Amino acid sequence: MKVRNGIFLLAGLILFFSLGALAAAKGFLDFTYDSKGKRDPFVPLVGGELSAVAPETFAGEFRLEGIILDPREGSLAIINGKVVREGDTLVGYRVDKIKKSSVLMSKEEEVFTLSLTSKK
Predict the structure, then answer these.
(1) Angle in degrees, CA 52, 54, 58, rounded to 5
(2) Distance from the CA of 119 to the CA of which of 8, 12, 22, 74 falls in 20 to 30 A?
(3) Who's near 59: CB < 8 A, 6+ residues apart?
């Protein structure tokens, strides 16, 4: 008899919590956000189709962070966190030459050299 009562109790609890969870889920699906006059964080700030417009970059805004010299496979440079090789373009500037401690870059008539700086 105790086992039978236990089974009925367990079945009742399962049914109770299942119906409660189902009701909660239905209520959750019907939920609408009330912004209370503030900006809704779920609505994108930019409407319509998203597109990125890169701001004009000047040579002085580049930071040479590292150089890996490899004459066989091609040398690499890390500029503003991006890994580039000779011939690559970074925000319209072409990486012309990677040297031991500098990188030569150009854009149209503008030519400049980025140098590694030591931290002191």
Answers:
(1) 170
(2) 74
(3) 93, 105, 107, 110, 112
Cα atoms in the 13 Å half-sphere on the side-chain side of 53:
4
Q: What is the per-residue burial (b if ≥16 Cβ within 10 Å, else e) of 13-49?
A: eeeeeeeeeeeeeeeeeeeeeeeeeeeeeeeeeeeee
Structure tokens at 73: 């496979």
Bridge partners of 115, per DSSP, are 102
Are the C-beta atoms of 91 and 57 separated by less than 8 Å? yes
- Note the pLDDT tens digit of each residue in 76-119: 999 988 999 999 998 889 999 999 999 999 998 889 899 987 55
Tell me the C-alpha distance between 72 and 70, whole Å: 6
* Model pTM score: 0.50
Which of the listed CATH numbers 3.40.50.10810, 2.30.30.830, 3.20.20.80, 1.10.580.10 matches domain 59-115? Answer: 2.30.30.830
